[in-house]
# Entry
Amino acid sequence: MATTVTPLPEPLDPGAANRALAPRLGSGRLYLRRFARNRGALLGVALFVLLVLFSVFGSLFTRFAYTDADFAALTQPPSATHYFGTNQGGNDVYAEAVHGLQRSLVIAVSVSVLTIVLAAVIGAGAAYFGGRVEKLTLMVIHFLLVVPSFLILALISHHLAGDWRVLILVLTVFGWMSTARVVWSLSTSLRERDYVLAAEFMGVRPWRIVMRHIIPNLGSLLIVNLTLGVVATVLSETALSFLGFGVQTPDVSLGTMLADGSGTITSAPWLFGYPAALVVLLTVSMTLVGDGLRDAFDPTSTSAALRGRR
Amino acid sequence: MTLTTAGMHPPAESAAPAPVLSVRDLSISFPSEAGPVQAVRQVSFDVLPGQTLGIVGESGSGKSATAMGIMGLLPETAHVSGRVLLGGRDLVGLNDRQLSAVRGKGIGMVFQDPLSALTPIFSVGRQLSDALRVHQSLTKQAAWNRAVELLDLVGIPDPHRSARSFPHEFSGGMRQRVVIALAMANSPSVIVADEPTTALDVTVQAQILGVLRTAQAETGAGMVLITHDLGVVAGYADEVAVMYAGRIVEQAGAKELFGRPTMPYTIGLLGAVPRPQARADRPLVPITGEPPSLVKLPAGCSFADRCPAAVDACRTQEPALAAVPGHGQVACLRVGDIADGHLAADSLFPAVADAEEHGGAGSGGEVVLRVAGLAKTFPVTKGALLKRRVGTLHAVGDVSFELQAGQTLGLVGESGSGKTTTLLEIMRLRQPEGGRIEIVGTDVAAQGSPERARELRRAVQIVMQDPSGSLDPRLSVFQLLAEPLQAVGADRETIQARVSELLHLVQLDASVTDRFPSALSGGQRQRVGIARALATEPRIVVLDEPVSALDVSVQASIVNLLTKLQRELGLAYLIVAHDLAVMRHVSDRIAVMYLGHIIETGDTEDLFTNPRHPYTEALLSAIPVPDPQLERSREHIVLEGEQPSASRLPSGCVFVDRCPLYRLLDDGLRQRCRTERPLLGSAGPGSGHRHACHAR
# Structure
């Protein structure tokens, strides 16, 4: 019992737990404390913050823009002038990486936020209203889930000529279903809660109940899915761009950089290595944060505590 | 009756049989975010063979943790110290494997929830014979035969066939019988029963207590009976230990403890329990405050802050459990003053003089709620993929009543009697499936304009059973109270003013407005629930089991609050509760429901003193009374069986299958009971007391 930090086990007595934690921690502070105890999660946050800082302020440390071509230095390895080297066209890989990371981050974050909002509203709405609305929504969800969305994504985004804003839209439209399905199944149990019934008896309007009583109570799930959604989006954006369907030249994202660098992986490894490292760091950091959040929110999870004890 | 703790025996009693279970200085703590929770502190007791020790306490008092500690069923994170001696062997510190040899054979356990205590995928006979074969070398056939015998012993009808049934095929009471059979299967020397009847209806509770007695007589085991219900303990236990904040604060023979409670907490607890036998004019006296946190316990007596007899010394030193001549043991510094009558028990918790003043029943108020011929059915479906309708569940058959302003009508009945469905049908404010609902003179089926609908909504509000479930955990108290006002379109200033008014009304401090429900105690939460119901200034407040989720000491203050609010605001209450003692306290009129029908209705006092319907009679006799002498001497009518499913309604009287009167009738009347449904008939001219029975 080194650090004695396990959450109180399921109360043996109803109400025992209520009184047990008397100098009550606000739930927010409790989550924070549990989260902070998880070293991996803290590392994830630190990494992510560094990556964001890098994408925003990285361009200040070089005199090259990602569009600039330095014809005096084609395919040069990393040096004092070109920190990450240059590519075949003489573009500075450092500048490209900063911009590519920025592009990938913007796409990933906005897609996962939009996805979560869409999924929450549709999933919770379907569960609350039930009946025909629910059946129809589930049919659409299941249909979209079996459709080979990646192929459709590839085709659509190619036709729309690689504007990254279109990419955000397309990724969102095909990305909300699985989260919506989870939200729906959890909401069906929330729908039966007494406080939802109480709100109905007070005459609160249906959409207000969904927005005020159902979705906020899914908060922890949504936040966890948001972080994990960032990981998924980064990966699918890179994959699309790698295959040439995502971000199009002259714009640069981590995916296009990977595609460009993959041909010369033995002769000029820096072209592939730097963007690959950034993708790995980004996904690993967000996965760590997501896992940490899940453990912190989950009252039955003991892993947060056990990890501290070892 | 002599079951005193070791070391306290006068020499004459030491010839008593050796205790089968001795608990010494048992302490249990759980780690938590805020620090260790000291759930059980230095608990010691002995259980003699064939005797029953009742452990009573409110939630969080550590009684269940004690049971789990004895069984070695605590989570691994719990820290346990002290000794649990079973026949001289210390169980604390044994590993799971060693404990498995003891559980079942040395100690049998009866759990609260019989459904989760039985494995759903094995037949009950298989589970019983498995339990037998674990500890005894029996052939499969012999074990099966013994299992059937055990089922017969606990009163399961047709045990040969029932042994092949699965737990879900049994009703709650029958499942609990199976659990008891499991507990006694290997003739343990101790049976630990943790709230064995809490999940059951009153009439079934009476049966189960009988079965427990059989089990104890059959095995000669000592029993530890853990419950929050003082009435159950009074009728059953030989010795009673009262726990508070993890400690035993008073332990004595049942007769002594109930007759002359000595620890102020026990005195307060007994004063706070409503008694079914008492008229409503004995006000309930709540114990002020809430039990302390178990994380950072105060240095002195843990009850000092709520104790009217507390002196300065109480706050600095925790009194030890000390023997009181002729009364067992008490942990109180002022025990001397209380025991010799210096400090009269009655004067400790004085009744508030004006707390009780029932507006004369039925005295001329305007009728605010009229329900006529209400009916509600649910389809019974079968099949996972294609749902076929295979039957109809008649949740509410034919319910009619009127409620006047300023009056309280109590709907009483066991689970499945349709009382909650009736409430929900009223709350929906839509045309019911059958019958009419009129609220303040308007038929809900014809509300017309949205404004009228909104007005109706304002007029009826509900307080729900479980305050922690009915308050959204993500909203602060202010937001919770503002919600009904926003729903009826109030503006910001009105809401601000009304919320502070409401908090004042339910006697909550204004500082709670920013808190979330999880930071409130059970009593405070229910006050918020009541305040929320009052927000729109309703005429009718519907209360669904308003106090059943609360501890006894808190219950009383909520009951008193409800009475006060009714008097001040002229509210009409429609209360549903299964606790008849509470009902007697708060209701002007009572309607008893069985299988979706009102079978008897009348003024509360009239109905309690002179029940006419055989079901009402049985129901009243089944409530355990917290008074051992009365409880053991009065006549109990124990009904057989349980309320049948409402999907197969008898065509005649709904109660016919369980009716004790039916057996005494002649054939002609029996035929009538079987085929013709009795109507609610008045007993005498001008009497509001009506009942539905052919025989009476």
